[in-house]
Fold this protein.
Amino acid sequence: MADNSVAPIVAADAAGIAAAAEVLRGGGLVAVPTETVYGLAARADSAEAVATIYRAKGRPDFNPLIVHVPGVAEAETVALVGERARRLAAAFWPGPLTLVLPRREDARLAAAVTAGLATVALRCPAHPAMRALLAATALPLAAPSANRSGRVSPTSAAHVAASLGTAVDLILDGGPCSAGIESTIVALREGGGWQVLRPGPIGEAELKEILGSEPAAAASTGIEAPGQLARHYAPGKPLRLGADEAEPDEFLIGFGPVAGEANLSPAGDLAEAAAQLYACLHAAAQAQQPRIAVAPIPDFGMGVAINDRLRRAAA
Ligand code: AMP
Ligand code: MG
């Protein structure tokens, strides 16, 4: 018997993509795997469809969405893509890099997508399921992470179903996400400055190499990227960082030699740890222990993004 408390979950094969494209064209919501986390996609040109994303997530309407496009040509229809953006796109698209660029005045985007900002966040994803959906719909797709606002992000179809239930029309199952952590968000400022608004799989050093300049000091005004909110990714239990061993009432998430109930990467590999992070947090949230502890994670490479998420989850 079908479980009526969760949306249909279908394989991200040709038939699944066709069904999902149909839902999206009609203004519905589809959860779709990407290389970062599962996204909650809607057509970005429809105010009603975009409003449905905010409702499904319980997301505050001041928190803008990332718009997904198949490439630079489509990015140009909604944003002013300058020379620096082009260089970053050539280096990292398709992939886990989101560019915050000036929004074109004639962009066919629902106003709520950018939450009234003069900029738009754009990403060109690499995952074949998301790319197939972009091709099948020929629409820009707004897609935040497919979880209730403020909670742990989903890296599997089961995580999406547990968080959103029937608030989504269809869930495409493409297996676990390879990067496992949200995209790096970089803002390119008029006048030549740039800033990482959210650390992610692409490090600041890699961006610096392409851009050829130092990032501007991190004095961002107001809530520009609410992924930067101090409290986010919350597992719903107290979380202690830098733990070498568990207290009796703690579920320990290990790393390397710190074993734990679950382990982000027994080999101490940071990319593997990022891919496992949210699955371990979901497991810890469901465990019987009332508290969570996490082993120390080195603060370089992918570790910067992992520690960023863990600090907000612990806040
Ligand atoms: P998520 O909900 O996990 O997809 O996160 C999307 C992130 O992109 C949030 O932190 C948003 O605040 C950020 N974002 C989207 N559009 C913009 C924009 N125009 N300027 C700055 N940040 C943005
Ligand atoms: Mg999110």
In short: The longest helix spans residues 270-286. The pocket of adenosine monophosphate (ligand 1) is lined by residues 63-66, 100, 114, 117, 119-121, 144-145, 182, 185, 197-198, 224-227 (CB under 6 Å).
